[in-house]
Design a protein that fits this description.
The protein is of the alpha/beta class. It has three domains: 22-225, 2-enoyl-CoA Hydratase, Chain A, domain 1; 234-361, no CATH class; 368-423, Beta Barrel (OB fold (Dihydrolipoamide Acetyltransferase, E2P)). It has 14 helices and 16 strands. The protein has helices at residues 2-15, 36-52, 68-79, 99-106, 133-153, 158-166, 173-178, 189-196, 224-232, 235-254, 260-276, 283-301, 307-323, 335-361; strands spanning 24-31, 56-62, 85-89, 95-97, 109-112, 117-119, 170-172, 184-185, 200-203, 206-209, 216-219, 375-378, 385-390, 393-398, 408-415, 418-423. The strands form four sheets. A six-stranded parallel beta sheet has the order 8-5-3-2-1-11. Strands 12-13-14-16-15 form a five-stranded mixed barrel. The chain is elongated. The termini are far apart.
Length: 427
Amino acid sequence: MYPFVWSAFFMMLTLFPVVSEAKTIHVVTYEGIINPVSSELIVDAIQKAEQSEVEALIIQLDTPGGLDLSMRDIVKAMISSEVPIIIYVAPSGGRAASAGVFITFAAHLSAMAPGTNIGAAHPVAMGGQEIDEEVKKKLENDAAAYIRSLAERQGRNGAWAEDAVRNSVSITETEALENNVVDLIAEDLPDLIKKIDGRTVLTLKGKHVFATADAKIVKNPISLRIRILKAISDPNVAYILMLLGTTGLIAELYSPGAIFPGMVGAICLILAFFAFQTLPINYAGLLLILLAVVLFIAELMVQSFGILAMGAVTALLFGSLMLIDSDIPSLRISLPVILTTTSVTALFFIVILRAAWQSQRARPATGVAQLVGAVGVAQADLSPGGPFRLQGEIWQAESEETIRSGEEAKVIEVVGLKLKVKKLKTS
């Protein structure tokens, strides 16, 4: 009997196919400059994908380029990944320029959305300084060899990749597909996932055939920490933080004990310095801004009839225009931001801090200290002491010289409840 039962059981198993668990695809989206923040985001996404043993990791990318070191960190993580990585240049209107070209070529499979472009990968210097021709040639040769090796590793057009470095060429998604720069064009993520199904790529584990027909899409959210660091790294935000930090610290110096301006200023400056390490800072521009601060402070202390203030505003404006030197618009400070912050900073220094400085130097209007310099009348002969009328009150006063009753005298010091006075000089 038992053999018949087991036979029936196995027949039922053959009639009902085993349902396998659906494949999972991770998706991470990054739009912006390639810097330590983007590097951390993408490398972390790759590590999570490997831990979860997903079918693929799709990185939706839109970047104008960025730092070479951050780009190489991303490329190293992609090359050493056991999970297939797909770079998808999207959405429409997006691009993979400069460092983004290297990252695209490092992917196991690359795709572009309609209306996107790729290219212009010529290396440029940070900080606006001139590069020696020999050094420039070495950098160019190094970048050309690097990108060619990345392209040929996945069987893509190495000659075009090298041309993108040496001649800054850039092409549309259609031209990229025709020239074997990318593997396919996809309208959106669902279209991409549909088109890669059945394709074969080479990973560290060997050949991998994509099975994405019924794959589950999991979008990796960008953490709050990464969002904050990405916002701080924006050139406009970094510039505003620098000016806020500078004015805050100076306000604290002119009003010791206020605490709040100094605390906020220190935090803003540290955040600005963090951002500056990811931006092509021109040190001549930075020095001009520091000169502007010095001139603003000098204007508070010296009566220059506005000459120092005008010099400070001029230095601040030109320093701001020169601060970030880049051919990439998204790496430059917006002109409206420069004009607005320059005006507000000048107003703060010239009006607010001047008023605070003058109030500190002004004679006290209340308390015992305000009696110094006041003029009163001796009520009896002061030789050396006696009664003295001052501001409607009778005080005990003394003088080193004899002051007759009814004569006016000026207060030179207040000691406890006694005034020290001096006879007014008569012309």
